Amino acid sequence: MRILVIGKINPAGLEILGKRFDLTIRPYLDGQELIDAVAGYEVILMRVDQFITRQVIEAADKLRIIAIASIGTDHIDHQAAAERGILVFNVPGGSSQSVAEATIGLMLNVTKRLVQANNDVKAGTFDRVKYGSLELEGKTLGLVGIGQIGMRVARLALAFGMKVIANDPYVRIVYDPGVWDGVTLSRQIEIVGFEELLRRSDIVSLHCPLTDETRHLISARELAMMQPHAFLINTARGPVVDEQALRNALVEKRIAGAAVDVFDEEPTRGVPFRTPLLGLDDASCILSPHIAGVTRESQARIGVIVANRIMDEAKQMGIW
CB 3.0–4.6 Å: which of 14, 81, 267, 284 could bond 273 by disulfide? Predict the structure, then answer.
């Protein structure tokens, strides 16, 4: 069985696969180069940095599996894959703790102005009173999405003494025994309506997948519902937020700040990074390059999980 690896996969996973299969590792393959290269491979192993379009799938004459060593699958043409009977799977949960910790880190940074303070000190300005830092204790955190990541964020936020409310159309009772005693945790999280969450939260944190239902879930209308002192955190998917509307809200000081790890248009090789959020001052907006889930631990864990899943699925399909 031949596997085309077009993402940067942790060596722990590649070692497992390399002992059994023919691996071709080209981690930046994309566009026409990818279309030209996919023939003859039964498996594509990737992350979220490239797009598997209908053209790629049509050129992949032997393709049976698209394995994504990450959470998101919105960069795959699922219709084209389904028409060919190609299995598409991701690794949900592999980076949940990493994203949850990064979410809390972004909250601390944006409420305590740490990035702005760092840049000021490095520029020679030493001012201990200009930043107006805030405590997390006693603040209301609104979680949009209460799956594996949202649950972990809730656990960490409760440890800071925050009040946690959540909205998720698919969850009525919070329960995840793998994260916490589910009953105990559920009693500390109040499930509310989406608009109520926006109006009540001091910090709104997004943990929902990108679907037709959630695209631009946060736009000008929703931002107008938030309190002027509130912050928005996005470690979910970029298109969940209307970036131009967010910029306008920040410039006009209709919300206090934002921390964004994911973007509507994330750059591929040779394509410049563009977002309306560039150029905003560090006091109101912190940006990071989609790294919330990228830790040494999560990448090793995901690499092993995806390798074992490829082997299991290949056996069931009879291609190994």
Answer: 267
Q: Assign 269 a pLDDT band (cuts: 50, 70, 90).
A: low
Query: 3-state DSSP call for residue 80?
Result: helix
Amino acid (1-letter code) at residue 319: I
CB 17 within 8 A of CB 313: no
In the block, residue with structure tokens 């049976």: 64
Question: Which CATH fold would you assign to the domain 96-287?
Answer: Rossmann fold (3.40.50)
Structural tokens at position 281: 């001052």
Helices 96-112 and 114-122, axial angle in degrees (round to 10) = 60
Residues with active-site annotation: 237, 266, 290
Does the domain formed by 2-92+296-317 have CATH 1.10.3720.10?
no
- Matching residue, tokens 């180069």: 33
**pTM, two decimal places:** 0.87
All CATH 3.40.50.720 domain ranges of the chain, comma separated, are: 2-92+296-317, 96-287
